[in-house]
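INPUT
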Amino acid sequence: MTSTALETVPATLRDPMLPRAAVIDAIKQETHDVGTFTLRLDEEPEPYAFRPGQFNMLYLPGFGEAAISISSDAEERDTIKHSIRFVGTVTMGLSRLRAGTEIGIRGPYGTAWPIEQARGRDLVLVGGGIGLAPLRPVIHHVLRHRDDFRKVTLLYGARSPGDLLYAESFEAWKQAGIDVHVTVDRSEDSWKGVVGVVPLLFYRIRIEPKETVIFTCGPEVMMHFVAYEALARRVPKESVWLSLERNMKCAIGVCGHCQYGPLFVCRDGPVISFARMEPYFNREEY
Amino acid sequence: MLPRVSATVAIPKPDLQQVFDNLRGSRLRLIGPTVVDGAIALGEIERTEQLPIGWSDEQQPGRYRAKHGAEKTYFAFNVGPHSWRRFLHPPRLTLFSAKANGKMTIEHDGEEPPRYAFIGVRACDLQAIAVQDRVLMNGSYRDPQYVARRSNAFILAVNCTKASSTCFCTSMQSGPRVTGAFDLAATELPDVFVLDVGSEAGSQVLEGTSWAPANAFDVGRATEAVQKAERQITREVRTDHLGSLLFEHLESPLWKEVSGRCLGCGNCTMVCPTCFCTTVVDTIDLSGRSERIRVWDSCYTTDFSHVHGGNIRPSLRARYRQWVTHKFAAWREQFGVSGCVGCGRCITWCPVGIDITEVLKAFRSTGVK
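OUTPUT
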């Protein structure tokens, strides 16, 4: 399908910076600045598999690479989905592509959400804006294995009702047994829901601290207050998991860009426990 | 007949050319110190005359001068602005080229990485290579270019017989005596090189030289020469609990105080022999062929921490703190060693002469420890 030179290189010598080709199967416009790309990969050089929370480096020749979290169902093997916010050089370039085009992809990289830790317990997912995208594979997992968990709650917010990601799925998630709470920072006339920042949604739910595991992804300041609200309810630091964002160039822990204290976010993150992150987290300009 | 591995031998100084010829005969490219633009830099050499014979240097915070004297010394200077990472982890490297017109074709340039012989690797720099090995070769991902260049490299190390005012290898336990993996380690005396043979390859390149087992007199003089260098070292860093000291003082006003003098030029990161950060530059030509080129990067650039919505570290205070806490605190957690080898380059080549040993001393005196 593609005439890449990769096949001629023995696997042991393959350069980890070399992408493989993926075809854009479909693009779905989610909001005014977010689109979900469905990508199909060749079986060669090896079948693709990922764990919820991991990310890929998407490559557009001439533009560069961007680290984008995976939003699809990890148990669905033939395609992967990326919900991409069009804000940077590469993502703006991607926004102009059409289905059928090939792009480059490397991955998956990084740590995964510790779903095992939440098994048999309450799971609270807390997302802000595009931060729902890396939590989506967890929702897919919960929908497939709902009985593995006790209470499952989603706290989600965005700047405005128009910025809410996957809004058309909220009803289905509720039907499937997820307690969904949604808020917006700024309301509009048509909005009948809650207004306020995401951490305030903690006041709408009841938490059993020792039996709760929290996964959160969103702006750092939001995650800071999510951790604050969780700890105030005596949820152990080890049960609060963050998904971090930093500039990434290599995704394999050798370019130095994504350092956050002693961590390489690409390798030791993006998913990391608050217990591990606390000494460095949300320090001014760190 | 060739010396055994771990033997100590002596060769007359002019025989170094025979060693060069033997290395070149094994199709290695020789890289060694040579005078370029008034500084002792590293470059490709073929003959011993290209070494900085008779040259020495004078280094102070923010000051470097190469000086020519009367004595016929080959290695009577300390480390210059270049380090070996220039050759093991080059400043600019094309990763691949790609062509996209709906379909995407990726071409990986299969060119053989160069095979080098490094002439005159000092103890601090040998330690720096070992540090970069941990980053680029022994981690979960291996940089194939680094691995190829590193595994083929022949190392002729040189013990320092003088120290600069900016040296602090003794504090970082990296020198001035060469330890670690080398093929040959030389100590220069007025008449001979005393050589420790570190490998089979190190022994083989002595073929054709008039080597002889080093006598007690030569060994004694060589030991004394290195001890002299050690006595000349005045700068000091206390390394116990250094990482936790810095991590506990992330919000210290000292960061602002020191970075008030920092120009943010990134010189320290460019001359540092262990800094490994890179970024990737994308080019595209009119035919639609684009290249991904890896280039050295510095945590002092504002772009370095760019994410959508801005830079994580807009202030110089934060960027200076990033470099120092990475080198002396995070590095140990990441790679199990200090990121600093005490070569002193960052002190010499800082245009305003910020002295890392003084900065760390200031943290030590304000710290509770």
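end of record. Residues 220-232 of chain A form the longest helix (13 residues).
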